[in-house]
Amino acid sequence: MANSWATSAGVDLHLEPAGPGVRRGLTDALREAVRGGRLAPGTRLPSSRSLAADLGVARNTVAEAYADLVAEGWLTARQGSGTRVAERAVAPPAGPAARRRVPGPLRYDLVPGTPDLASFPRAEWLRAARRALADAPAQALGYGDPRGRPELRAALAEYLARVRGVRADPDRIVVCGGFAHGLTLLGGVLRRRGARTVAVESYGLDIHWDLLARTGLGTRPVPFGEQGTETGALADLGASALLLTPSHQFPMGVSLRPEQRSAAVEWAGRTGGLILEDDYDGEFRYDRQPVGALQDLDPEHVVYLGTASKSLAPGLRLGWMVLPASLTEEVVAAKGVSDTCGVLDQLTLARFLTSGAYDRHVRAARLRYRRRRDALVAALAEHAPDVRATGIAAGLHAVLRLPPGTESTVVQAATWQGLAVHGLTRFRHPASTAPRVDALVVGYGTPPDHAWAGALQALCRALP
Q1: Across the chain, which distance is largest between two alpha carbons, in Å?
Q2: CA angle 274–276–281, rounded 5-degree value
Q3: Smallest Cα–Cα separation from 23: which of 72, 75, 60?
Q4: pLDDT tens-digit profile of 240-278?
Q5: Rg (Cα) of the chain, in Å, rounded?
Q6: Predicted local distance difference test score (pLDDT) of residue 97
């Protein structure tokens, strides 16, 4: 039945008198009334008791529908002023570009990819910079070797062998301006060698696919199943190279299974293909020792790429490649005309590594991020039991599996809670045949410690 308030407001609230769909029907009707402008911003809604009596439904049904719409941002509820239509409750515009716009100010950034910048070790870094500059020979400030400063390459070779199991000769390490710079250099070399296609994971970063496209390389997704990337299918893709995140697949959060690691290396050795191993957060494993780098299985067919972006800060613009002997000269020649790596930062990072400051910082960061992930899992269990965190306990992000068909609604609800967060669909390769999964990709690394509790509360309010 309709009521006098709904009739005067132009809201169609014809509902079934009973049944499990009453709450959803009421929620949908009110949402459409706000979306369509029939309920203007600031309009006060009847009390849950009054509207329930008019509709002939339980009061809890109305209260829960109101609560759903408050969580989504369509309504506001304040003690003493009742439930009102939110001032900014307008539907976001459609289209790919519009999905990146966020109405209203953001309070918390949960987009994956950035560490807690507030925890950058400024004092230790400054101490390392002073020592590095004091000890640097005058010629260190010249143009130097395109591979990078020998001090940094030697420090990286020792660290990567000790921590990630990488077989790294300093002469085959090339320092670059972050992962994107390294990938661009490699893409150009591959294209000049005659490559046309790079196999990529079904879920990943579109900016990496775009960078490869700018070098003239197409991308084809490797099938992705319940247990991760299925590298046994590489032979069917006609690719010359494979871009892979084997230690902690981004964004799905799984580790590449041993048989799939072997299949990838076997494919590279048999076809002469090249594996580009993106070890973006291999130091952050919380439940056990990290899986060693894939490069150790076949250093002549795997390029190991690492970066300081997750362990320290992306603004340093420091990354590194450990190259096969057959590729080193070509990459060095390509980098020689596009060197973007500051000598002083290289010398500082070398000192930071050899002094033990880097190890101490990573240990502290590992503990910090583990606590955040544990708090996230506990909050889900208490406040959103229908949502679960998937993947291994590692890295700076988690994938939250949602009930089917709810991803876009939850992303919108999170936006109204002041959260910047992405749905899993954003990371799906356009040509992927992998089953579509509704999920959020939540980066728990970015908020500073003092803001994490508030970010968790806002996230839980947005979840179904």
Answers
A1: 86
A2: 160
A3: 60
A4: 999 999 999 999 999 999 999 999 999 999 999 999 999
A5: 26
A6: 42
pLDDT at 456 over 70: yes
Which residues does 333 contact at the CB level (< 8 Å), separation at least 6? 146
Domains of the chain in start order, with CATH, are: 4-85 (1.10.10.10), 98-118+361-462 (3.90.1150.10), 122-358 (3.40.640.10)
Q: Is the pLDDT of residue 21 over 60?
A: yes
> What are the tokens at 401?
């599996």
Residue type, 34: V
Distant-in-sequence contacts of 358-365, Cβ < 8 A, 24+ apart: 358/159, 358/311, 360/124, 361/121, 361/124, 361/311, 361/312, 362/283, 362/311, 364/119, 365/115, 365/116, 365/119, 365/284, 365/311
Edge-to-edge order in the sheet of strand 397-401? 388-390, 397-401, 439-443, 422-423
Tens digits of residue pLDDT in 328-352: 999 999 998 667 689 999 999 999 9
Tokens of 164: 């990630």
**CA 182 to the chain's CA centroid:** 19
Looking at the whole model, is its pTM more than 0.70?
A: yes
Helix intervals (H) in 36-110? 48-55, 59-72
